[in-house]
Amino acid sequence: GEALFPERSKEVVTELLDRVAEQTGRQPIVAALETRFAELTRRLQADLADAPPARRMEVVMRALVEGGYMAEWEAGENGARLTEHHCAIKALAERFPEVCEAEAKFLAAVLAAPVEREAHMLAGCPACEYRVRFPEDGPAPLIELNWDRGVREEHA
Question: Among 1, 22, 24, 58, which one is most buried in terms of CB atoms within 10 A?
Answer without folding.
Answer: 58
